[in-house]
């Protein structure tokens, strides 16, 4: 009886989805990234909020100040807070580290991308400059950039079921506003397989 229950639970875990929702908002003072991850049929939810980005000029060096807050459904309220200042060199070093990891583990990463279900991508940008001609020009340029980015994602097997890309000119006020909402999911079983592939690359 106990063995049967354990087997059923293992099957339910392996077949369950991890649902990921990434939201990005840039609207003058309201700049933030919100990442929400739901596990095991939505029973457990983890949320990370990253308000972006205060520029601090310190000792003739430009630093980016990032404040993070994390919370989950297994605790009450915020579980961690983080305040970090990064110099331009720190950011470049982190980018180099990420590129190095992607090159080393590209096979399991490609596997995860291929097995993910890319459900929805909404990317809206509103552009307003002082000159109407420049506003129209940069709005068209941004839309071309978005379509090129989407073509690149498509070449990497990232194909969203629903896609909404907008670039809207604002001829009444001077502002640049961008909002992104991305939703995708992957089964826990595929993550376990990808984890084994990571271990194989790391130790073999």
Automatic annotation (TrEMBL):
It comes from the Bacteria. Pfam families: DUF2953. InterPro entries: DUF2953. This is DUF2953 domain-containing protein. It comes from Caminicella sporogenes DSM 14501.
